[in-house]
Amino acid sequence: MSESRRIEVNLGPRSYPVVIGAGLLGGLGAILRAEGLKQTGAFVITDPHVAAHYFEKVRASLADSGFAKIVRHDITAGEAGKNWDEFTKTCAALLEAFPDAATAPLVLLLGGGVVGDLGGFAAAVFRRGVPFVQIPTTLLSAVDSSVGGKVAVNFGGVKNIMGAFSQPRIVVCDLDALRTLGPREIRSGIAEVIKYGAVCSRSLFEQLEAGALEKMLALDPPTLTDIVAQCVRLKADVVEQDEHDKLGIRNVLNFGHTIGHALELSADYALTHGEAISVGMAAATRMAVQLGMVHLSFQKRLTVLLGRAGLPLTHPDAPSLYDRILRALQLDKKFRDGKNLFVLPTGIGSWSPRENVDWPLVHDCVRAVLVA
Ligand SMILES: NC(=O)c1ccc[n+]([C@@H]2O[C@H](COP(=O)([O-])OP(=O)(O)OC[C@H]3O[C@@H](n4cnc5c(N)ncnc54)[C@H](O)[C@@H]3O)[C@@H](O)[C@H]2O)c1
Ligand SMILES: [Zn+2]
Questions:
Q1: I need a surface site. Which of 34, 156, 223, 240 has the fewest CB within 10 A?
Q2: Distance 256 CA to ligand 2 centre (A)
Q3: Distance 257 CA to ligand 2 centre (A)
């Protein structure tokens, strides 16, 4: 068993640790108590896939640590469940289980990014905010969504348009939980890992190129611990500088996400988040090349790495898909004054924002990733 790692996200009074290691779920209750969390009620938001594997372990550990009332609430698994209806059902279940303000529960988000985003939003608004814990069970949520405090649901056909900033009290990332993920979900998480390398860290990108990628695909324990910890540190660095996404620094995390998000929703959940982001990174890279912002060699290296991970660079075209993507681009959270904000690579590990990209070029880049 590899050693646990502890990474601090330093946000003044909202600071919290991210604990990464193997076999952590069995000791979850003790970890929470050691963190000073004293609640006796726990509201565990999860989904049926995750709960089937891990709820009992979590429940037993919480019960052993003095949680007297433990309530489980399942949301519909996958992106289709990240909606307003599931959100309000979750709020209703919270209120029904814990109607007394004196016994507000600790909310535990046991699952991937969908559980973390939706459940975190419910915890952020229930009684104007109750403490919550992120327990990521996908690679994607381990390296990205469980850290940083962005919580949200999709609404009106727009990704993450209803949401809040609310930081967890602690993130407990048990790497053993990733072992029940299918290969497609592992690849999906690797898309975000490649994103960090491509625009935040040349050394991570080169480590992936040098073989860490295949070790990640195989969930090799030391590589997994090392790379998840690197990604969490990279994300924490960005979030510490721009917690509320006001300074433009946090935009870096959106590489591949402008066209990626538009595709993700327009394709009716045919792609995982990571797959959509992979296609989105291919599109954004094409844009950067066309604008002369990055050398062709970047495109080549990124394409090779995404290919080695088994991630898509294109998506099969379908009737009206192109139009739906263009419409979705105009509904993007960051769409302002008739233009999208694109995060474009300028070299391995570096990036630059671009707001004034002409529509014909945007159209060309969307067209290029839709194949017959
Ligand atoms: N808040 C943020 O900063 C942020 C960052 C990146 C992504 N996101 C969001 O994250 C979401 C994607 O997250 P995701 O990829 O984790 O998707 P997900 O939560 O839908 O999980 C993917 C699938 O894996 C299953 N699953 C989860 N853990 C499992 C396990 N250990 N074993 C077996 N099956 C398991 C789930 O039930 C689901 O079917 C998107 O909605 C995206 O917008 C948010
Ligand atoms: Zn993402």
A1: 156
A2: 8
A3: 6
